[in-house]
Design a protein that fits this description.
Layout: H1 3-14, H2 20-32, H3 36-51, H4 55-65, H5 82-92, H6 107-113, E1 118-121, E2 127-130, E3 135-141, E4 146-157, E5 165-168, E6 173-177, E7 181-187, E8 190-197, E9 199-204, E10 207-213, E11 217-221, E12 224-228, E13 234-240, H7 241-252, E14 256-258, E15 267-272, H8 278-289, E16 291-296, E17 299-304
Parallel strand pairs: 4-5, 14-17
Antiparallel strand pairs: 1-2, 2-4, 3-4, 4-7, 5-6, 6-9, 7-8, 8-11, 9-10, 11-12, 13-15, 16-17
Helix pairs in contact: 1-3, 3-5
């Protein structure tokens, strides 16, 4: 298909002049084609059309595209077309577009953040506030996970969703979001997390090192770990396991579930001090009663071994 024909098809698509079948074929092509050269031509046609739209036409385009079916977005922003790509992606509602790399590459915004504070809006509605000399190196959004790699310091406001949101740092730490607002500082020999809202789980080298909730603070500097918790001590004297779990859920704002294989009326005599994270508490309960646990999204399941 020659470029002139592509220009016409894109124009008709943006103007709402394609039939339902033609529009469906266009969307499927943009969504599933892996022909980089052909998609390059399509993208050029798209950006060329959007560039000439006035504000009223953009609003009309928004109303049209909001009616289209939405799906997960994976797109690589090209520097020469960054502005128009952002407009097109925002209006198109997240259609899957393949280019040279099947990921979002926000190198342009990241380089700007090196010299000043910068807020980056992600495709899922989440936002990242990058501090000076900080940037996001890579980012991946697909049907299974939302994932970024952070260099430096940033505050995250994560939009709740079924897919996990994971932040990696070059020193091997992984922060798995179980809540919504937190701050990460990653520098030489220093890793620090402060939770402002919700919960996050942290691991290093595949080992869980903490699950933090609102007000908690974790700092690892030169190999030494410092954890501060805002939670008051909890003491249970021969209370049913179901009651212990309910209280822990309420206090820590977490979601622990007892598997059907467990007798939830087992009596517990245990005390948890303020230095323990929610993950520590779960491990203590499992050790006392010979249980195991599994973390999936924002839920922790305790079950028999």
């Amino acid at each position: 298909m020659v470029m002139r024909e592509k220009d016409t098809i894109v124009y008709d698509f943006l103007a709402g002049r394609l039939s339902a079948r033609e529009r469906n074929r266009f969307v499927k092509l943009m969504r599933y084609s892996k022909d980089v050269r052909e998609l390059s031509d399509w993208h050029e046609a798209v950006y060329k059309q959007i560039e000439v739209l006035n504000p009223e036409e953009l609003q009309q385009l928004l109303q049209l595209l909001e009616q289209e079916q939405k799906s997960t977005l994976v797109v690589s922003f090209w520097k020469p077309y960054l502005k128009y790509a952002a407009i097109f992606i925002g209006l198109l509602g997240g259609y899957l577009i393949y280019t040279h790399y099947q990921e979002v590459n926000i190198e342009t915004q990241s380089q700007q953040a090196l010299a000043s504070l910068q807020t980056i809006d992600l495709a899922d509605g989440s936002a990242v506030d990058l501090e000076k000399n900080s940037y996001i190196e890579t980012i991946r959004f697909d049907d299974e996970i939302r994932e970024v790699t952070l260099i430096g310091t940033a505050s995250f406001r994560v939009k709740p969703g079924q897919k996990p949101f994971v932040v990696h740092t070059p020193d091997g730490y992984t922060t798995r979001v179980l809540g919504t607002e937190f701050k990460i500082q990653s520098q030489h020999n220093l890793y620090q997390v402060t939770v402002d809202k919700g919960r996050v789980a942290i691991d290093h080298g595949g080992s869980n090192i903490g699950m933090l909730q609102k007000g908690d603070f974790l700092k690892v500097e030169d190999g030494k770990t410092n954890l501060r918790s805002s939670v008051v001590p909890l003491t249970f004297d021969n209370k049913p396991l179901s009651e212990v779990v309910q209280v822990v859920n309420d206090v820590y704002d977490t979601n622990i579930r007892l598997d059907a294989s467990i007798n939830d009326q087992i009596k517990c005599k245990v005390s948890f001090d303020t230095q323990l994270t929610i993950l520590d508490i779960i491990e203590v309960l499992c050790e006392i009663h010979n249980f195991s646990y599994q973390i999936q999204d924002d839920q922790v399941s305790i079950k028999s071994k």
